[in-house]
Amino acid sequence: MLSRIVFVSANAVKSSSPLGAGLVQLSHLHTSPNSQAPVPALPEKGGKTRHGIIPEEIFQLLYPKTGVTGPYVLGAGLLTYILSKEIYIINHETFAAACMGTVIIYGVRKFGPDVAAFADKLNEEKVQKAQEVKDLAMTSLAQAVLDEKKEQWRAEGRQMLFDAKRNNVAMLLETNRRERVHMVTNEVKKRLDYQIALQTLHRRMEQEHMVNWVEKNVVTSITPQQEKTSIAKCITDLKVLAKVQQAKATA
């Protein structure tokens, strides 16, 4: 009877207590049509209980139908029915179980908070270590993201570098072309200057040859008598010029 009530109340409890959460998960695993559906997360802390083991949800489930005293009357009636029908017989094991239960309850009441605090401390340490590992992983991943962004930025700048290199190569090619054009111009100018110098040399040699030929012919055409007459004429002209200069000096 109680098991049926617990299973009926489990649909209303959802995740309010560990027992209810376990029942909900069990029913979900066996009744869900989709085996890949996510399982509801277990609560970190259990729900409220009465007398240490009876979930509060059972009382809330029976209140609308039986009132406030209904759960207690139901429990007492079930216990009376079980004992009167000798479904459960009280013997020495009952007293042993009662003693063991009393000791267990006393131990839970006495040492439960300390054990719970110790367990919570261990859990917090584990959570802190897991958080540190998570933070370290997040830091490393964030740094990896920054490095990736930097590499992407460098990859974008690589295009500018390639453009600059292409411009440099184009400038070098243009410089080389201009140097070759200048070299060709100089070579052509040198050849033209050579032709001009050659023509000038030919003209000068022709002029010198002509002058020498005329001079030679003139010299050969002068007779000794003409030479003497010319010398005498020159001497007479020099004497006349001397007298004119002396007259100018005395005047």
From TrEMBL:
The keyword DNA-binding does not apply. It comes from the Eukaryota. Keywords: Acetylation, CF(0), Hydrogen ion transport, Ion transport, Membrane, Mitochondrion, Mitochondrion inner membrane, Transit peptide, Transport. Pfam families: Mt_ATP-synt_B. Its main location: mitochondrion. One of its GO terms (cellular component) is proton-transporting ATP synthase complex. It is found in: Mitochondrion; Mitochondrion inner membrane. Signal peptide: none annotated. The keyword NAD does not apply. F-type ATPases have 2 components, CF(1) - the catalytic core - and CF(0) - the membrane proton channel. CF(1) and CF(0) have multiple subunits. Belongs to the eukaryotic ATPase B chain family. This is ATP synthase subunit b. It comes from Oncorhynchus kisutch. The lineage of its organism: Eukaryota, Metazoa, Chordata, Craniata, Vertebrata. The gene is LOC109869263.
